[in-house]
Amino acid sequence: MLFLQLVLLVVFLPGSDSEDAVQEPISFQITLTVSFYNRSWTQSLGSAWLDEIQTHGWDNKTGAFIFLWPWSKGNWSNVELIKLEKLLYAYFVGLRQVFQDHVKHWQLEYPFQIQLAEGCELHFGEASVGFVKFAYQGADLTSFQNMTWWPSPKGGSRAQEVCKRFNQYHVLNEEIYTFFSDTCPKFLLGLLDAGKADLQRQVRPEAWLSTGPSPGPGRLLLVCHVSGFYPKPVLVMWMRGEQEQQGTQQGEVLPHADGTWYLQVSLDVKTREAAGLLCRVRHSSLRDQDMVLYWEQPHSKGLVFLAVMVPLVLLAGLTLWLWKC
Ligand SMILES: *[C@@H]1O[C@H](CO)[C@@H](O)[C@H](O)[C@H]1NC(C)=O
Ligand SMILES: *[C@@H]1O[C@H](CO)[C@@H](O)[C@H](O)[C@H]1NC(C)=O
Ligand SMILES: *[C@@H]1O[C@H](CO)[C@@H](O)[C@H](O)[C@H]1NC(C)=O
Ligand SMILES: *[C@@H]1O[C@H](CO)[C@@H](O)[C@H](O)[C@H]1NC(C)=O
């Protein structure tokens, strides 16, 4: 999909008047988690993400960005990036202080965690959308929309108090609004352009079959493993001939450290019905040539083994006998 998005992005960049193209939005998101242990001790962890690809880390002591890809700077100059680093760090320090100062008032209890997710989403052919939202102990607290902080319905009086406070920071709120509705989408476009070669790359999966833990007597759990592919969208099916099998269990698509993906898809079958099943893998890197893996029953492997070994042993015996004679 990402690949498709990028292709479409090239076609429908702003200025194009095509309105009816249906595409998934793509987002750039900064996340920050701050753990408050007591009045003087906090820990924080920040990162930035292009959809599901981490693009930046964050040095929590200096506030410096860590660029994880050669293209993580997008089309920004070092001067601009340092300016942004300083701005975000000042924002972070201020934020931490506001929470420390309001522990009593907002009924926060040590130790607690504040999570911040902020960024922008590019909708093709429409204005992009900026978002900023906070969570307390993993539950939504407040979000920023139309220049105003809104309490989350489940946030209770705490969320209302936080919003009341945040809504007093008029200048800051205007800056936040401009940053996420204007600066962020520009940066995102620069990032997509600079990272083209990596973002549009195609990596072929490897695939293999195995059995999982037996689901019961006379049954087999067939597992089809598909590993190391990029981009993420993939279709993996257990089939008999052209017939897709009911009861296929699809796992979650899991990341490898190198940015490629892994998926396993299993099927619970009666042992005697396993013959003739196959796993079919469809992925953009394979173009129209689906990968097909046939299930071979262990006992049929055993038969092949016997079929090869028995004549060999007989032959060896015969040779030995002839030689002795
Ligand atoms: C705050 O917590 C840290 C780590 O748990 C601890 O080392 C420190 O002594 C605590 N400080 C206070 C003032 O309680
Ligand atoms: C900074 O982040 C690291 C994890 O990346 C964490 O171990 C460390 O405690 C953090 N330091 C501060 C001061 O938050
Ligand atoms: C807030 O902004 C959204 C678009 O982001 C708009 O649809 C909505 O009408 C606005 N609401 C108010 C109260 O201005
Ligand atoms: C980066 O690229 C975006 C989108 O193409 C553009 O709007 C922006 O002006 C560029 N920024 C710089 C600093 O060149």
UniProtKB/TrEMBL annotation:
Coarse class of the protein's main subcellular location: membrane
Domain Ig-like, first and last residues per copy: 185-292
Topology of this chain in the membrane: Single-pass type I membrane protein
The keyword Transmembrane helix is annotated on this UniProt entry: yes
Membrane-crossing residue ranges in chain numbering: 303-323
Signal peptide coordinates: 1-18
Superkingdom of origin: Eukaryota
Keyword line: Endosome, Glycoprotein, Immunity, Immunoglobulin domain, Membrane, Signal, Transmembrane, Transmembrane helix
GO biological process annotation, one example: antigen processing and presentation, exogenous lipid antigen via MHC class Ib
Gene Ontology MF term list: endogenous lipid antigen binding; exogenous lipid antigen binding; lipopeptide binding
Gene3D superfamilies: Immunoglobulins (2.60.40.10), MHC class I-like antigen recognition-like (3.30.500.10)
Annotated PROSITE patterns: IG_LIKE
GO cellular component: endosome membrane; external side of plasma membrane; extracellular space
Localization of this protein: Cell membrane; Endosome membrane
Identification of the protein by name: Ig-like domain-containing protein
Species name: Neovison vison (American mink)
Lineage of producing organism: Eukaryota, Metazoa, Chordata, Craniata, Vertebrata
